[in-house]
């Protein structure tokens, strides 16, 4: 299995990275090939809504010349995309949102002169998130958006795992959170083998 983890945190050693580390370790023990990309380090400009990509069959086709072209090709080469993000204001961080905006149009070619097939049909997707509120409060809006993006472009959404940060003066990563992350990785592997 080829996995592309899109890290949406501005902090390389923050909560989201800590939560995703045991998840990735579990996947690696089962032979997954993992590419981890830090989106804050990349130039991902906002979608222009120009729809030029819609008439470019078989390719990303975006007129914006930035790192999204490379990221899109990495997504095409992967079997599983993981959005790993802290939840800010009940949604992902800005680079994750910018990626999603460009990805949905670059892969789903439905609005051009003729309807073209999606480039990512059948690929799988999941979410790892950290948040300050309880996950059942903080995560639903973002998770619903990812689920809808997947449905729109023909991907399979496999679910999410989330961990709460209880604030300053507390230790974020615990054995329980590490096991949650590892358990989610095992669940995805089980789904993969079906």
Would you kindly provide a written description of the structure presented here, covering whatever features stand out?
- The protein has 194 residues and is of the alpha/beta class.
- It has one domain (2-193): Flavodoxin domain (Rossmann fold).
- The chain is built from six helices and five strands, in the order βαβαβαβααβα.
- It has helices spanning 15-29, 68-77, 94-107, 135-138, 140-153, 175-193; strands at 2-7, 33-38, 80-86, 124-131, 156-164.
- The protein has a five-stranded parallel β-sheet, sandwiched between helices.
- α1 (15-29) packs across α6.
- The longest helix has 19 residues, at 175-193.
- The chain is globular, with a radius of gyration of 17 Å.
The residue fraction in helices comes out at 25-40%
Major sheet: 5 strands, parallel
Say which CATH homologous superfamily is assigned.
Flavodoxin domain
First CA to last CA: what distance? 13 Å
Give the neighbour order of strands across the main sheet. 2-1-3-4-5
The arrangement of helices and strands along the chain is: EHEHEHEHHEH
Shape: globular
| Percent of sequence in beta strands | 15-25%
Compute the number of structural domains: 1
Mean pLDDT, all residues: 96
The CATH topology is given as: Rossmann fold
Judging by the overall fold, what is the CATH architecture? 3-Layer(aba) Sandwich
Number of strands: 5
Uncertain residue segments: none
How many H/I helical runs? 6
C-alpha-based Rg, rounded: 17 Å
Assigned CATH class? Alpha Beta
Would you tell me the structural class of the helices and strands?
Answer: alpha/beta
Oligomer, anyone? Answer: single chain
């Amino acid at each position: 299995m080829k996995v592309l983890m899109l890290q949406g945190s501005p902090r390389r050693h923050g909560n989201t990275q800590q939560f995703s580390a045991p998840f990735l370790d579990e996947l690696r023990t089962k032979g997954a090939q993992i590419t981890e990309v830090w989106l804050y380090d990349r130039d991902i400009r906002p979608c222009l809504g120009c729809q030029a990509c819609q008439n470019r069959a078989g390719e990303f086709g975006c007129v914006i010349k930035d790192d999204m072209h490379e990221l899109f090709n990495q997504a095409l080469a992967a079997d599983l995309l993981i959005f790993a993000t802290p939840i800010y204001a009940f949604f992902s961080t800005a680079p994750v949102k910018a990626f999603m905006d460009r990805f949905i149009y670059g892969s789903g070619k439905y609005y051009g002169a003729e309807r073209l097939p999606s480039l990512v049909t059948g690929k799988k997707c999941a979410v790892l998130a950290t948040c300050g509120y309880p996950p059942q409060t903080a995560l639903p809006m973002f998770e619903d958006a990812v689920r809808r993006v997947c449905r729109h472009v023909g991907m399979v959404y496999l679910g999410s795992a989330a961990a709460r940060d209880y604030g300053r003066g507390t230790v974020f990563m615990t054995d329980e959170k590490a096991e949650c992350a590892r358990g989610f990785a095992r669940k995805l592997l089980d789904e993969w083998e079906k």
